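=== RUN LOG ===
request id: a7f3
mode: sequence -> structure
chains: 1
length: 372
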Amino acid sequence: MNVFASVNIILGIVFLPIYLWESGGVQVSHIFLALGCASYILWKGLRAKSPEKVLAVLALFIFVRESMGVLGGVMDVRAFLPALYMLFNLIVFVTIRMWASSIPNQQLLSYGLFAGAAVAASGVLILGYGLTVDQEGGRAVGTFNNPNQLGYFAVCLYSCAVLLYYGRILSARALLALVFVAGFLAIVSLSKAATVGLATSLVCLLFVSGRSRKGLLYGVLGASLVLGTVLYLYAVGYLDGLAVTKRILEIGSDADDSLAGRGYHVLYQARGWEIFFGLGESGVKEFVGHEVHSTVGSVLASYGLVGAGLFVTFLGLWAKRLYDVLGFTGLFVVGSSPMLYGLTHNGIRFTMFWLFVGLSFVIGRGKRSGVP
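=== RESULT ===
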């Protein structure tokens, strides 16, 4: 085993919640992951499969599309950043898929997740948060740059934990601990997308959590009890004072809750060849003022039907992999949270998402020893 690679990959996971510099730039976790990925790839080499090939073509297409704007004098060299983001996360995805294909490394990854969860939770507890609507300070940020990053980290942490539980790497108690932390982070971030996505998946997980008929019965009873308790507490008014309750009840009332507020209306501006090749990232920002707040929608707007087709093809391969190993229920439990979040936020550059997707392709089929 390449100890240097493993140590740096784990440190990269541990430091994922630490944002020392502005968003969009290199963070501490990226440095560790880059060292770990480079070391592992130099040691093992690359074995690209269909998902990696699709992402590689997408990264190349993004580079070519943005190059058109640069050559035309519309954009500066920062236009190449989206291609660099995609290339870096492609490398992370490839490395995690290969490195985590052994059970011992999946166990190491679980330790890194626990440490990363502790770092994220400690940042929130130390820097402060408010649960009730009359608390000052608004949404918690922790060691991230904004609350949406905290909420997306919670979603990816939850999905990784469920994956490891399905792969029999995590015990039920360990899963419960990580789910509790993820739920806490989502709630204090006051991210509507993160809270709704995690809650939706969690209810389904409770119903199917048992690995036997007896366990399934306990899961159904537990889910019914939790749902009943929450509904009762809401009915009698005990949840009215919580900020997260207020946020959920206000869904649809904020200006950015509409499709226009999220930037979807830029899709109607594409004409001719832009329908196939997109407006480019700067073209989208010039019209909307910001990127489209959607994972798939942002790719469609910036890189047209060609770019979106490649990305959706990759997501289809990912969904098929989960379905083949975990079935439809497992696919929903694991994949619903990040995809629901992606309807209203652009998470394509979030490194932990690619770590989670890389793990998705190997969970349940890991080797007990060695790395293939």
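=== NOTES ===
The chain has one domain: 3-360.
Confidence is low (pLDDT under 50) at residues 132-137, 368-372.
=== END ===
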